[in-house]
Prior knowledge:
There is one protein chain. The protein is of the alpha/beta class. It is about 45% helix and about 10% strand. It has three domains: about 30-160 and about 170-395, no CATH class; about 400-490, no CATH class; about 515-825, CATH 3.40.50.200. It has a seven-stranded parallel sheet with strand order 8-9-7-10-11-12-13, with helices on both faces. Helix 5 packs antiparallel against helix 10, helix 8 (about 245-265) packs antiparallel against helix 9 (about 270-275) and helix 18 crosses helix 25.
Amino acid sequence: MEVGPPPFTGQSFPPAVPGPPPSRPGPWPVVAAVLVGCWTVAVTVPAELAGWLTDQVLLASGLDRAVWLWPVVAGVTVLLAGVPALLLTLLPRSGAVRATGRAWLAGLLAAGALTLLRALPPVHHEAYLAALAVAAGLLAAVLGRLARGRAQASPGAGTVGDPGTSGRPAPTPPATGGDGTVTLLAVAAGVATVLPWAWFGALGGLLETVLAAVAATAVGVLAGSLLDARFWAHFAVGRPPRPARLVLVGGLVAGVTLLLVAAGAGQSGAQLPALLALPPLGFVLAALQAPAVRAGGPTGPGPARWLVGLGVFGPLAFADPEEITLILAATRDVPYWVAATAAAGLAVAAVLSVAYGVLLARPRGRTPSRPVAAATAVVLLAGAAAVYLGPGQPGLHGERLLVVLREQADLTGIPAGAPGRAGRDARAGEVYRRLVATAERTQPDLRRDLARLRLGPTPYYLVNAIEVDGGPAVRAWLSGRPEVARVLVSQRLRPLPAAAPTSRGDAPAPAGPAWNVSLIGADRVWSGLGVTGAGVVVGSSDSGVDGRHPALAAGFRGGDDSWYDPWDHTTAPTDQGGHGTHTTGSAVGRGGIGVAPGASWVGCVNLDRNLGSPARYLDCLQFMLAPFPTGGDPFTDGRPERAPQVLTNSWGCPPIEGCDPAALRPATAALDAAGIFVVAAAGNTGPRCGSIEDPPAPYPDVFTVGAVNRARKVASFSSRGPVPGTSKPDLVAPGVGVLSAMPGGTYATLDGTSMATPQVAGVVALMWSANPALVGDLDRTRRILRDTATPARATYRSRNPADACGGDANITGAGLVDAYAAVRTARGG
């Protein structure tokens, strides 16, 4: 340890100028700076939150991202906060206040420019990180050139005497390189800020991580250009300088500057944790200046570059901005852990501020020697690595790609076969054979190339496609191959430090048939017609199913081919989110909650933490066409004769998950050709017209279901048509306050077209149970459902006739499903 600060050299403080002392201005410039700083924070933070929330509302409403949103946020922020900051650079005579205004104005302009990059879609995160690196580097270069030009034009840095004086300018104090101790301490502090992210976060793909490091480095260089030696010289006041004032005043000004840097560093959502954790590091940077100021002048941009670069590396690398979404906020998912990490980062920054202030900024404080500073940095780096490899989520967890081939199977001319189950099974077998044959003939060359590059190919046949690892470079290479039609991003959620608690319900079990079951007349089918769905199997693709629930346990078909979990590879029916248990219960649950309590069910997990991907949706749809045993090969071990007759699908694949409008079209066409009745939810993005958009709901061979309440009025959230080329929804069912099963033997009432959809699947099960010859006759089944539906009341967004969506049929479909009338008609009665 060095004993005490080195003696003053006199470099920075020239002899006093003869003559009367300079006049001391009043406190108003400082008051103005304080007010401008508070105003800048008050404008920037709400603007960033408002921009992110608007993004989330558009996402939840099923609307396209507003490309203009973030440019507007940037423009409003720069305009409202930039004008006061500009006045600070022009009006006060205090050099420190003018330096404050310059730092804030430059920070606002830089943040505004970087914010424009959020017009890039979040799904292309690598492209955003590359653009951020380039833009931040260019801004740093421009700011550095402007600073050099200003220094050449006016060699004075403002007054270096007491704060607020307006005497003659003194030369800029030289930046001291020292022995590197300050830089090593900055590295140690930066590594400490990464610790919470190494524990709670997870890295993306290799390219994504590398680009995050490059972008963080560029943002650090930008921060160094804003908080360079010239900036700190204005706060190194007094003879000798007072470190406490440097830390307090300079730290506050630097903190606001870092807030502006954080506002521009990250896609929508990723900047939010940095807004909380980065500003307190301004005090750390100020404390790091104290030893150098005592030595004769502030340091250069090195400490800011390291500290800020490492500080923004955490949120850029360890969090996927697409997962910082309100869609995942209902459970202890990514938003929860990001908030926890931001709070931990704030605590780390506060501890660092106090520790560095006490260690470095005392008038007679001791500065650690270089070996001690280096050892501290190494220990913290080793600690971060241990945390990452231990309680963290080690490894790379980037997105995958779904490569859709040009040639899809020809399913024309499939013979109808005998009526009923036997004919349906024969059709399913022929469809399976053609699909597999097409995939095996067209995929081998591409699969060999992908395997040689170690991209982990997973082939599919229901859509002739292959899922692979890879980022933009792999996507561009694949898109150029002649056999490839297009390449979709197949989203993959990053792992959590701890699983979210299993969702449970708090409603009592029903004492009899639930209101929705009675509204559609299903209970009359049981009692009056003696039909409960026996002999029919319903397939549920969702978040899973609690196979031990008393309302569902007896209905599970069993065997080694009735459950598939492509996410976690569980071997028995289970459900953490609860959504799938609820929907399956509404289709086949016993005890009054299910429409077809005598039917059996099989299940597949296509949603993980309420999000899916094109590949996981395909996994489950393939399993439903040709179930295979646990650990089996879908291409060789599929059993189409074991396919469920009816599928309930309370999900949609929006663009944020990687789907385009045609992504699953070959899959539903194949299921239709196989005689499998596919029911799908219309979606919950109403009352906007044309809101039935996400596959598979718009497809003509899918039976699409909207939602009504007890009064037979279409729920405001229920998505509606028109849909080009077909009429949607097909009909509606109860979807408001629907009671059904939840994990752990519990019950809950939920709203959504997700709740309405399985009831229609249950009605089809009743129809086919009442008349087995109808099994596989999709056209006649659809016709009966529409012809027997009862009127439902359309609702509109307003009284404007344009809100009628082209007619009530695009809101209510054929009407409210009537189980009793449909089963009687199916039976021929």
